[in-house]
Every structure is written in structure tokens, then in C-alpha cells.
């Protein structure tokens, strides 16, 4: 299960998965005005409801890939397909949510109003959006912080608010770009556990960019290791780890074995 599986050219069939969306990337290419190529003929097939981590050297194109999937940028060549289609309609689940490395909270709004913002922007009435925001803040353990402002929160709490804001629309696809990188290890590990629990509960498809192989192995079902840019897939591996995970897993031989496999692929991608 270590070989890259190129995307099929057959049409996507309707696939609700576990509440997520099936994502197919075929032959993606992206370069910049200075002539630098970031992605070159990159193909991935991501099952609905799966949790996939993307790792690779700095500057290899991981964030660019997320931006293409989110529709924040457009490829120079290649296609992106989603099933079910990510069309917005009244009352539908939000199709895509994006969590950045910085929480990007509005300092003049309370925690509750920051989380309710995506629903406010699409015209959801105040009582309904506040009810949804309160529910998701409870899910991330911030039910007692509704009236606080961002300046009154720790870094870990701000990232939980950012995660809650992404989840308030109940997205089918959650994209995370190193969201916990600036946090201390203990806080980061706790948020990893919380994120994985929310993924299992809500069933959305997750694409998670990280520089930490240990975080990738702990969180994901599948890890894609990219080479130095232009990014190529060095390893596309379904992890041989239990579905139920806890802190003790990090000290087990099987976890170390998976880390070694990822490390070797990362080293190859940094030198070839």
C-alpha cells in the first residue's frame, strides 16, 4: 500500500461516504510568474470521509495544493472533481472549510460571534447561528468562553475557536494548513486528539498539512509524502495503526515503524 495510486479517468459516481466528499485531483500543474514550478502532474484520489495528511519539505507545494482544492487558486493544468458536487444551496451543509496556521479571529467580536460569522455571512438569522455556534463551541470544549474576546484566550483556545468556526457549517471537506504548528507540544497533542474525535463524529473528509511526521501518523488514516518542488508523490501510504488512538500509541513499536517509513520517504523526496 505504499505506491501512489493514480486517479482514474472514469466519471465520479455519487458518493456520500460518511458525510464527506470524494476528491479527485488529476494532472495538476501550478507554476508562478518567476518560472518556479510548484506542482507538476500531481494526481490523488481521496475517499469520502477519509483523513489524509500531506507532508513534505518546506516550499514543496503543500499549501498551494490546499488552496487549489479550496478554490482560492486555480491550476495551470489538470482537473479537480468532487462527489457529491460542492454546490451551495439554502440549508445545505457547507461544502468546504479552511483552517489556517493563524487563527485569524476578529478581535472586536466575542468567541460566540467569531464562530457564528460564516453563518452570518450567508444570511442565517441571529438566533439560529448563535445556537449552532454554541453547539460547536461545546464540542471543542469552549462552552464556558462564549463571551470572551480573542485577546483573553490562550493560543490553544484561539485555535479551538478557529476550528469551531470552520466546523459551524458542518463542512463536507475540511482543509487544515499547519493549524497547531505554533503551539506547545502538550497543547498540540490535546488538539490532535480533539480534531480526530470530531472527524470521527462528523464524518467529513479531512486534508491536513503538517511538517510533523508524528502528528501526521497519529492523526491520519493515510499519509501522502511529497518531494521537494515541483511536488511529486514519494509515498502514498495507508497507515497500519489502530482506528482507536490515544497518547500511549506514540510510544508503541508499530508507531515508530510507521514513522521510520515516512521519514525515509521524506528524505528521498528532499534529495531527488
Give a written overview of the molecule.
The protein is of the alpha/beta class and 272 residues long. The chain has a domain at 104-171. 33% of the residues lie in helices and 21% in strands. The protein has helices spanning 62-70, 111-121, 126-139, 155-167, 185-202, 213-219, 253-271, and strands at 22-31, 37-46, 51-55, 77-83, 96-99, 173-177, 205-209, 222-226, 233-238. It has a 6-stranded mixed sheet, sandwiched between helices. β6 (173-177), α5 and β7 (205-209) form a beta-alpha-beta unit. The longest helix is centred in the last third of the chain and has 19 residues, at 253-271. The two termini are 22 Å apart. Residues 1-17 and 88-92 have low confidence and may be disordered.
